[in-house]
Design goal:
The protein is of the alpha/beta class. The chain is built from 16 helices and 15 strands. It has an 8-stranded mixed beta sheet. The protein has a 5-stranded parallel beta sheet with strand order 10-9-13-14-15. The longest helix has 32 residues. It is elongated. The relative contact order is 0.08. The structure holds nicotinamide-adenine-dinucleotide (NAD). The site of nicotinamide-adenine-dinucleotide (NAD) has 28 residues, from α5.
């Protein structure tokens, strides 16, 4: 196919001379910036967080999946640097926007970070620049919100500049699928835009999946995460149901998993966490409601999942009750507070609510998490305590929230008096004991 892109832009990209900017240097942005720098592009990272910018310029990595050694080397070679100043976009050929897209307290999308970024980008927008939004957002953000803001510059999309959306699928902590090996869905406002976006990503990512519009690409990400949220909601409900039925939900799932087609295993747990699954489906339901559509599955899954921390606390109460104890005055040790295993990310972690609810009921709560030395949230502020046989034996109940791999499960089982295991972590390691209660 003949390229509708300016020849010298294509050449600069193919020869890796094109200047690349990554805006928002977090879990998504930093690994991406590093990959472009690794294959030879001069990369500038832009972030409003001075601490992150300083760390990067000193060659330090603050994202566990990004090796410090790589950052150090790239900064030393002058391939990667960071700044808080958007003036750095002058002369940049392609930029990826990876800023946060959280929810407001009302659970509506908070797209203020995207808006603030585009307001800064438009000041330095120039001919033949490629702009890609990666932040997860509702369908329509790129063409309804970002495009008019950029075209207010007087430049025309598809001719003067190229705009697209490409959802990020990174899975922090996953050693098998990483930035370069996860297939990348790409889209553009016009065919030339899509071509430009595909060309940019094709330099660092092995498999590129073009789709027909930015709305489709935005929706792809929301389908993926809504799929997870709904299926986790289903197994959480099944766990709640299996308990009074006297059935081990984990055993049911293991056996169902043996079906080689038409089934995919999801697991119950103490509630959703992380920047994606608890949040993204609500971006979709918000937008659907604006169009008069009532997204019932999404809302129901959200409600079931959001009720899990309270269910964990209920189960702690029931387990203590069987031993003639109350939650009020009990000593509880929470094991693992990060939202998932082997990472230190606390965003939306259900542990926060579990701890908060236990404290409200009068329990004395400590936690241990080697990945989270300090917990400072609106409702909870504490430090991780060291794990010892004495501390385990002193706790009336140990509540396992995050099943980090390097926890010594045998010792925990040996020293504890009562364990509520929300992840089936002990049974998975073939540790069985009357002291262990599953979710
Ligand atoms: N973390 C994940 O696993 C993951 C996976 C897929 C998609 N996403 C999506 O990617 C986006 C980024 O997520 P993340 O986890 O990297 O977030 P993050 O909070 O780790 O990083 C975002 C960075 O953007 C910076 N920032 C905020 N406002 C800015 C501005 N106006 N200009 C420049 N920088 C700004 C912040 O200081 C921060 O360093 C979100 O939309 C998220 O939903 C995240």
């Amino acid at each position: 196919m003949r390229s509708a892109l300016p020849k010298n832009l294509v050449e600069r990209i193919k020869q890796r001379r094109a200047k690349v900017a990554v805006i928002g240097l977090g879990y998504v942005g930093l690994p991406l910036a590093v990959e472009y720098a690794k294959v030879g592009f001069p990369v500038i990272g832009i972030d409003v967080a001075v601490g992150r910018v300083d760390a990067l310029n000193k060659g330090r990595s603050y994202i566990p999946d990004v090796p410090a050694q790589e950052v150090r080397e790239l900064v030393r070679k002058g391939r990667l640097r960071a700044t808080t100043k958007f003036e750095a976009l002058r002369g940049v050929d392609g930029m990826m926007i990876c800023v946060p897209t959280p929810l407001r307290k009302t659970k509506d999308p908070d797209i203020s970070y995207i808006v603030a970024t585009i307001e800064s980008v438009v000041k330095y927008l120039h001919r033949h620049q490629i702009i890609v939004l990666e932040s997860t957002t509702y369908p329509g953000t790129t063409n309804e919100l970002v495009l008019p803001m950029l075209e207010a510059s007087g430049l025309k999309v598809g001719k003067d500049f190229f705009l697209g959306f490409s959802p990020e699928r990174i899975d922090p902590g996953n050693k098998v699928y990483t930035t370069t090996t996860i297939p990348k869905v790409v889209s553009g406002i016009t065919p030339a835009c899509r071509q430009a976006v595909a060309l940019m990503y094709g330099q660092v990512i092995r498999t590129i999946i073009p789709v027909s519009s930015t709305k489709v690409a935005e929706m792809v990400k929301l389908l993926e995460n809504t799929f997870r949220s709904v299926n986790i909601g289903l197994v959480n409900e099944l766990a709640l149901m299996c308990d009074p039925l006297g059935v081990n939900v984990w055993e049911v799932i293991e056996a169902a998993k043996s079906k080689p087609f038409g089934y995919m295993a999801f697991y119950p747990g103490p509630g959703l966490g992380g920047h994606c699954i608890p949040i993204d489906p609500l971006y979709l339901s918000w937008k659907a409601k604006l169009h008069g559509f009532d997204p019932r599955f999404i809302e129901l899954a959200s409600q079931v999942n959001a009720a899990m921390p309270a269910y964990v606390v209920q189960r702690v109460g029931e387990a203590l009750n069987k031993k003639g104890k109350a939650v009020n005055g009990a000593r509880i040790l929470v094991l693992g507070v990060a939202y998932k295993k082997n990472v230190g990310d606390m965003r939306e972690s259900p542990a926060i609510e579990v701890i908060h609810l236990l404290q409200k009921k009068g329990a004395g709560v400590d936690y241990h998490d080697p990945f989270v030395p300090r917990l400072k949230e609106e409702s909870v502020s504490m430090r991780s305590v060291p794990l010892s046989a004495k501390r385990l034996s002193q706790a009336d109940c140990v509540v396992l929230i995050t099943d980090h791999d390097d926890l010594d499960y045998d010792s925990v089982a040996k020293s504890s008096r009562l364990i509520l295991d929300t992840r089936n972590a002990f049974a998975k390691r073939r540790i069985h004991s009357g002291k262990i209660v599953r979710l």
